[in-house]
Every structure is written in structure tokens, then in C-alpha cells.
What we know:
The chain is an alpha+beta fold. It has 3 helices and 6 strands, in the order βββαβββαα.
Amino acid sequence: MKLVSIGFGNMISAERLIAIVSPESAPIKRVISEAREKKILIDATYGRRTRAVIIMDSGHIILSALQTETVAGRITNKSEGSSGEESERND
């Protein structure tokens, strides 16, 4: 299982992720509102502004204070494994 940081020490399973979307559009705001009513919303923003909405295969909606590109980049880096770039950075 590959875990990806979504900020403030919170992690999600990369394999269970369906989508990372911006919270700006009306349909996504509606999804967030419905998830809150159904008690399947996980707010991992620690009171900060929501910048990414993560949709999981379980139906849970996760709010993150990190930008969508940042979360996507972390998932991409995790799925590539250690391609040599990581070891160069650690030296």
C-alpha cells in the first residue's frame, strides 16, 4: 500500500484514490455539501482554505489545504518508486 501525504501529517492510500479536483466549481461544492450531510466528508485542512478535493473509491470525500498539483505530484512521485531521482536528492 502506497501512502501519500496530503498535508499536516495526513496520509491517503494512492491505490484507493479516484480523483483530485479543485473546490471552485458549483458541482464540486455540491458534492462536498452532500458528503457533509452523509457524514462521509473528511476535513484534513486544519482550518485552512480548501485547495484540493480528493475523491476516494469508498465514496469518502477528503478536503486538503494543498493545491491539486501538489497532491498529484506527490502521488506521481510515489507511484514511480525510487527511480534514482530520489537517491540523488538524498545524497
